[in-house]
Amino acid sequence: MIEHAARAALSLGCFVGIGSILMVLGTPEDSAARVVSIVALLLGAGIVAASAAVLWLGIRRRDRCTAMPHPIDDEVVQPKEEE
Is the pTM of this model over 0.85? Predict the structure, then answer.
């Protein structure tokens, strides 16, 4: 569930970042539109970094969980009854 949300956030961050890069290139210097575009670029980069970190941590956790043996997999030994 978290991975799906992180992937959606990654897509959103890429969309915002690429759009703001195009806006920065298309706006004149010393204008309010350029300032807003730069703020959007920083916001998009932050979203991409945060969602990439969440995905990376999820992959590490999944790899760690699959590397460890499951505690229920231990063999059950029945005690012998005395006669």
Answer: no
